[in-house]
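Predict the 3D structure for this chain.
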Amino acid sequence: MKTFKSLVIGILVLFLAVSTVLGGCQRVETPRLKVVTSTSLIAQIVEQIGGDLVNVVNIIPPAQCPGHFDVKASDIQKLADADLFLLHGWQGEMFSQELIASANNPDLTVISINIMDNWMTPPVQIQAVDAILAELSRVDAENAAAYQELAAEYKDSVSAKEAEIEARLAEEDIASINVMCSSQLTGFVQWTGLNIVATYGESDSLTPQVVQELVDTGREERVTLIIDNLQSGQDAGAGIAEELGCTRITLTNLPGGFKNTETWEKAIDYDIKLILEAIAK
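Done. Predicted structure below.
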């Protein structure tokens, strides 16, 4: 009987010892960095290079113009719970200072990613990745190596996508296509190689006189394509296209603006597909 009790006690002691050792080897889950972003342009990059180390919440809906955004109580709460707020610093984001003040979060780090060129173009996308990587690594230095590894992988995929698209565009006589586009798309349309004859602003800036001048220019320059921007007025160029009797398409400047465009790769594929379909007509 004593032998049996000793055996039981020995097994229990061994079990406790093993449990203690295994428990000590278990990975301790650290809280993810809570990041709030002003637009999906920033959000999708943070998701790409942050992986499971970050929790990303975006504020401005991707189909909406940042300049026409109205702050809601839920947006204030997002910042009240956040560690980091990344925004563009665009003039259209004037709401941000009021939002930050209302959140009353003394632990919140606020950083502007001051890149004014069009983020949809591959070179600018890579520039934005580097800028966001630097800020994530500074705020969360403990995970800097992981951020750097994921950023390198993402930049490789951006470069691969750029080469793929350039090869597709090279099959067409892009430079001979005369277009008019939203001023918000200028950088992207220039990157594709299309010949921009003129640009125009949002719908409320297109007075009858401005429209007539654009139509006259379009006829003189033989414009065959009007390119609107979803976020700054998806129908802004409709009247111009109707007068010229030419094709009109609407592109997105933000990932997620249209269905199944939630990443930069999907969004640029969508835009390029529309362009190639339009010039093929």
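The domain at 172-279 is CATH 3.40.50.1980 (Rossmann fold).
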